[in-house]
Every structure is written in structure tokens, then in C-alpha cells.
Amino acid sequence: MEVAERIRAEGARLTAAERRVATTILASPQLVAFGTVADLARTAEVGAASVVRLANKLGFDGYSELQHCIQGELSAQLRPAAERIHDSSNQSVAAHAEAELANVRATLGSVGDEALTALVERLADPERPVLIVSGEATAGVGRLFADQLAQLRSGVDCVQGSEVAVRRAIALADARSTALVIDLRRYERWVLDAHAALADRSIWSAVLTDGVLSPLAQRADATFIVTAGSVGPFDSHVGTLAVLNLITNSVADALRVTAADRLGAIEAAWGDAGALTDGA
């Protein structure tokens, strides 16, 4: 991204306040694309003047030009893969490594302590069933998270299938449930509808999505912002996996004793069945 490159180039010259603004821009570019100077300043916890000064240091003629540049970059990222594949990108190992490391750093760097604590406390409570709702593109990492969480505790289910199945699952969900909803830009309509139905039932939800202005974030109790930049036609899910790993490990730590018993029972069952082999 052009803006990210400018921030890296000017990093040494930025004040502490300007660095907070820059960090916020990198973590939530949608906030800049669709928000105001005041929105960005409030999120970064700085004055509006710091936002304008940063825009000027980055070579933009004020906030509006910075915003226009980010809007253009996001528009390019939102294009279908069929269009993005024609872009001339650097496909070297180094380019991929830089992009993926940036995704992980930005995603984990934006995790809020309050949101993480609230989610982990609920996921570690065996009296609260867990519902996982994930779009098709993120279904793989969502399924992996559900499988690992189910090894730590009971009462973990994925909400999926036809509209009849999804609506039935939500209608019958325990009011104490915790929902984790995962979907990034170009959202699947059924995911948005399912999340709205959960909110209408006042079921607590955390979302993994691409920005604070995401339609999912608007109705969530806790939001985790995922950065999904890629040098190729498809969005990266490395950042999504990184934050899900953080959540899983935090729950494992909170459930250390009971989780150890469950994991021990699982390992014993695998051993008795000879289900795993080292290839020998």
C-alpha cells in the first residue's frame, strides 16, 4: 500500500502522537476511508491537529487527499479475484513474507485488552454455549478454531447450512451463548443476516472483520480487526488465524486443569485406537 510505504519511509520523523495516528491508519484503513478527521483522532487518542500534520508529513495536501488515496487502495483490494489476478505484483518469497508478517503484526497489534479479556472469559465459561458463524472464505480457519476449542471445552457448534438450518440454530440457541462471527470485506449476506438475528436475540457476539465500520462491527459486543493484505488475487487469512490462535491459547490457559483432562482423554483414545502414526 502506498500509504503504508510512506509511513515506513517517514517513521523516524514522526512524533509520538503522529505514530499513534499512523498505527491506527495501518490497523484500520477503513476508518480513514469512510471517517472524518475527528473519528481518526478520537480512535488514536490524539488531537485533530496531529492527524493533519501526519497527512502533510506523508506528502498529502491535507486529510482529504490522504483519505482519497486510502479509498483508492481499498477499492483495488475489494475487486474480485478475477480482476486482481491481472495486476503485476511482486510474487517473490520476500514479498509474500513481508505481506504476511505485516498482516500478523497489524492484526495482533490492534487487539484490545478489554475485548480479548471479555471474549476469553465467556469462552472459558462452560455454562455458556459457543456458536461459530463464518463466511465461506474463512470457513477453514473457523472450522479449525471450533475443533480446537471443542477439545478444550464442550458446547461448541458451527452455525452453517441452509437458511432453514441457520435460523433454527439461532432460534434455539441458549440466551447465555457467545457467538463468534468471522467475515471480511465483500461480506456474505447470510452471515450479516445471521449476526443480525443473533443481535435481535441479545446474544453476546464478538466479530473478526476488516474494520470498525464493518456492518458486523456495528452490532458486535467486541470487535477484532483483521488485516488481510496480499500480493496476489486472494485475501490472506494469516492474520485471522493468528488472532484465533491467540484466543484459543488464552482460553486454554484459563481452562488449564479441565482442559488438560480433556486433552489427556483425547490423546488416550487416539493411542488406544492407533489412530496416529509417525509414518514408520
Automatic annotation (TrEMBL):
PANTHER family: GLUCOKINASE (PTHR30514), RPIR-FAMILY TRANSCRIPTIONAL REGULATOR (PTHR30514:SF18). The lineage of its organism: Bacteria, Bacillati, Actinomycetota, Acidimicrobiia, Acidimicrobiales. One of its GO terms (molecular function) is DNA-binding transcription factor activity. Residues 1-77 form the HTH rpiR-type domain. It comes from the Bacteria. This is RpiR family transcriptional regulator. Signal peptide: none annotated. Gene3D superfamilies: Glucose-6-phosphate isomerase like protein, domain 1 (3.40.50.10490), Winged helix-like DNA-binding domain superfamily/Winged helix DNA-binding domain (1.10.10.10). GO terms for biological process: carbohydrate derivative metabolic process. InterPro entries: Homeodomain-like_sf, HTH_RpiR, RpiR-like, SIS_dom_sf, WH-like_DNA-bd_sf.
